[in-house]
Amino acid sequence: MYTACAVTLGSVAVETGASLSGYARREWVLFVAMALVPGVVGHTVLNSALRYVRLTAVSVSLLCEPVASTFLALVLLNEVPGAVTVLGAAVVLVGIAVTTRTRSG
What we know:
It holds the Pfam family EamA. Helix content is 76%, strand content 0%. The chain is mainly alpha-helical.
């Protein structure tokens, strides 16, 4: 699946004339890291978790991604989230807790 997605995305980039060159080495390292860590490793872990964890728990855990990204932006980039973002994160975390504590599913 990862290969099919990469080929499709590459084909669309070439077809639309998007520039695939001219980036510095640092950017290429970041591109590869973003593809491997969250893409391949992250999704592979989620798919593997389905063997051991209920589907509802795995699917709702995906909602943690923007919450974790917001936290990382705060810690690594000193970007302070607004009140609405913090409230939204709290709602998401409470929703995850409620969903994962239920017995059905």
